[in-house]
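Input.
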Amino acid sequence: MIWWFTSTRHDLAIKSWVRQWVGGTMLDRWLQISVPGFVWFTLWFYLALALYSGSGDNGSGGIFFFLFIGTFPWWFWIADMIIDHFHVQADLQRYASSEDVIMATRCEYQGGHPQLPHGRFAYLLLEGTREDPNITLGFPAPPGQTPDHFSMPLLDLVTLGQNSQQHDSPAGDAVASMIGEMAKNASLKEAAGKFLRPERITLAVQYQGVAGRKHEVEVTNFFHGNGEIRNWRNYLICAQAEADTGIVPFGPWKSLKPGLPTVEEVPSDYSRDGGQRPPRRSAFARR
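Output.
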């Protein structure tokens, strides 16, 4: 219920208590609700005793009524888990049914995007076209309004100046830059688990923004846990490689639809242009 109510209200979704609740495990949420819950239960328990101490059997129904109210925080804990699960699953199925979406999940955006100064939970999409895949953060919107989407092109790779200086030829520079960025563009940051706290994995995605600056966006707390985060990294690398090479990854895989071909101005008579041919479009030379 917390996610359902706050997901379309950005001013609430960025609150620390909301992020702590939505990102917590079942045990985390139980501990959060139990601290004020025991105070709530004690209040109603003694109130029920004071009102029905002399009522005998006639007051047994009222006592159970007050006890039900006293356990309301834990009923809320159970209802929140059920509603959160089915609500998120319905949204993810709707996203994944689209032809231009490979994967969809809910995650916690921690920071790094030049237009998003506040961390919050959001939907994460791997979408776009085969030549132009994007990883997108989506903020739900109330009915009748357009959701806010913030896309990061997977193929807008960042130049590695230090690696380029280690080679003498331009070809060596290009190859080193491409290999280095393919490895760095989607990386994992792992923090060891502690007592009653699971291992924390963060997916860091690097891309080049509109101003030409390098940005690193970090997302964590995926809906299905740490295993899903590792799976997302694999899918990002495979989608990136398919866009550049056209080779479909091995095994079950949903390829994005091809985009519309771009119109390129080329000489109509190649014999007058030194035997040149139309330049081959590369996924690493977009826009």
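Strands lie at 101-111, 120-128, 133-139, 148-153, 186-191, 200-208, 214-220.
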